[in-house]
Amino acid sequence: MDLSCTPEEEEFRARLREWLTKVLPTLPAAPPPDDWPGRRAYDLGWQRMLYDAGYADVHWGASPTTRLIFLEETERAGAPYVGANFVGLLHAGPTIAAEGTVGQQARWLPPILRGEEVWCQGFSEPGAGSDLAALRTRAHRDGDDYVVSGSKLWTSHAEVADWCELLVRTDPDAPRHQGITWLAMPMDADGITVRPLRTLAGSAEFAEVFLDEVRVPAVNRVGEENDGWRVTMVTLSFERGTAFVGEVVACRRTLTELTRTARENGRWDDPVLRRRVGRLDAEFRALWRLIQWNVSEAETTGGVPGARGSVFKLRYAHARQELYDTAAEVLGPDCLDLDRPWVLDRLSALSYTIAAGTSQIQRNIVAERILGLPKGR
Amino acid sequence: MRFQLTDDQEALRTGVRELLDRCFGPEVLRTAVGAPGRLDRTLWRTLGDAGFFALRLPEADGGVGRGLAEAVLAFEEAGRALLPGPLVATHLAAGDVPGAATGEAVVTAVDGGVVEWLGAADVVRGDASGAVPLHSVDPLTPLHRVPGPVAFGPAGGVAVLLTAAEQLGTAARVCELAVQHARTREQFGRPIGAFQAVKHLCADLLVRVEVARVAVYAAAVTADPADIATARLLADEAAVRGARDCLQVHGGMGFTWEADVHLHLKRAWVRAHRGGGGTQSEEFLAERLVA
Ligand SMILES: Cc1cc2nc3c(=O)[nH]c(=O)nc-3n(C[C@H](O)[C@H](O)[C@H](O)COP(=O)(O)OP(=O)(O)OC[C@H]3O[C@@H](n4cnc5c(N)ncnc54)[C@H](O)[C@@H]3O)c2cc1C
């Protein structure tokens, strides 16, 4: 077991750190959380800066250790997070890199890396959330196109996305898991209507997407027709296995900040609070170790993270909620003021045990796929 | 960075597991529970011969010359097997108490107001004067209470880490026991593991084991005090909570003396008191954050 970095990796860290010190002060002010066009521009701008400096491919090109160093250093320096580039960089990109043809990789990957195109994820539907394989949005082949009709729900950043990783049912008669196809749908195609949905945090970060006879070129299909479920599993394993990794560093920073606040406002004298904070520190330290372990394991077995991502996702989702509940304790009555730091984060954190597969679904995955317990109803 | 067991470490783990299966299998465990308070000197010497206590002593001093990571793996196995005796104290004494390295001497230490195995020990580290026996909750760990202010063992971090490793072993074992039972016990015409309430208990058991495991292994690599505090907190949780959930999965059978579950839980409680307990680790980590 080894946790040390090679001299090259340390050199990468030093170079990155130096670069961040130089460029971060030149960044424009971040747009308000609800200004999605503003956030799109801001997030793409940041990705472009990373690209120009040679750091764009850390999420799926570089060695896993390099990626962890990147996440540590950018977060420590307070650099912007992936934001609107979340789906493109953290799951559509890796999926296309793993499952796409050479032509598809050439078409879609560079624009993601250069900060030119934003992706969204059209998996969930009104009748298919946890039970994703129940999806009904259908597509039939017409010449060189698929013609898609149906609707998608909870599609994050749909309003500002250029592409959608879309799941459609191409064979209604096949068993549930077998008639599904994974398509890349251009969001400016005719027949797409996006209706923003307001979240409990007050913002419109996700949307309902209606699809009415939308034509998607068949060359946009990743994987074979009706083999989309397998491709979906690859996407989900990235989503659960690695997409939240950078946030653990952010949580540790938040923990340090709230500790400082507690010192200033006297809450730190409360041993119950201190113990809770100490335990959270242990929690996030251990989650970071779990990431290092999983990354090393994936490196050994080759690429795609396995069901173990669910172990991480499950534990992390709850830890994050606990973190912001603790922040609320530190804030006292100010935790009721939306203008205070962490209050919006506390609200957003409520989604962590739901989005990307609920905690109940993650437990089913751990129990059935890792522990081998019988499937039940 | 390759944060995975090396082949050597895998081999060592397998070796220790096989050794413990041979010399401290289920039958021997049962016998030990039937005759509590007696430390099996033959077993102790077998452990000594196998290098369990001398694992981290340099080869030049007659030791095995391995590191903290290997010790952690060995102690994890000891935890799995519910191996009784003052293992940590004797291991830590291997360098300076004659006979400890070979298992000829049994060494115990005063730690956090209690001493384990005082009656059976040849050497006691720390001041045990005025010690009074407790009616130990763990049938396989005799305990004495030491009067006066609570003092912690001399070895500090390493003792805590090796204890965390034992807790990890317990946690992994009770997870296995729960899953085995959930797969085989049938109610309502199907294995209880098909019921989601049971399935989710098992999933949470595994999640706690996995998080504790990486925390313990990372602390073994870095020997950093904050990593050790982390390891202890996660491992205590995984062992104590895990044993309780395992008991729940076993239903009425879990509440009997015959099932091993209670032995794991009771040992986990005893270990959770070593080295100042979790409170100390929580306060330590909290203070580090403001430092
Ligand atoms: C902030 C946010 C962003 C999202 N972004 C996207 C996105 O960009 N693209 C996308 O496709 N989707 C997105 N989602 C959707 C998300 O993946 C789903 O909400 C999630 O999978 C749950 O599905 P559901 O909402 O239909 O809830 P349901 O499946 O109806 O679940 C309701 C409750 O029932 C429980 N439940 C359901 N089935 C079971 C079972 N078998 N066993 C035990 N309990 C069960 C669930 O755990 C939950 O508690 C997003 C969701 C949120 C909250």
Automatic annotation (TrEMBL), chain A:
Arranged from A to Z, the UniProt key words for this protein are: FAD, Flavoprotein, Oxidoreductase
Q: Specify the Acyl-CoA oxidase/dehydrogenase middle domain's residue ranges.
A: 120-213
Any one of the GO CC terms: plasma membrane
Q: Does the keyword Transmembrane helix apply?
A: no
| GO molecular function annotations of the record | flavin adenine dinucleotide binding; oxidoreductase activity, acting on the CH-CH group of donors
Which cofactors does it use? FAD
Q: Which residues cross the membrane?
A: none
Q: What is this protein called?
A: Acyl-CoA dehydrogenase
UniProt source species: Streptomyces pluripotens
The segment(s) forming the Acyl-CoA dehydrogenase/oxidase N-terminal domain are: 6-116
Locate the Acyl-CoA dehydrogenase/oxidase C-terminal domain: which residues?
226-371
Automatic annotation (TrEMBL), chain B:
Pfam short name (any one): Acyl-CoA_dh_1
Residue intervals of the Acyl-CoA dehydrogenase/oxidase C-terminal domain: 162-279
Needed co-factor(s): FAD
Q: Where on the tree of life does the source sit, at the highest rank?
A: Bacteria
Q: What stretches pass through the bilayer? A: none
GO terms assigned for molecular function: acyl-CoA dehydrogenase activity; flavin adenine dinucleotide binding
Q: Which family does it belong to?
A: Belongs to the acyl-CoA dehydrogenase family.
What is this protein identified as? Acyl-CoA dehydrogenase
- Origin organism is Streptomyces pluripotens
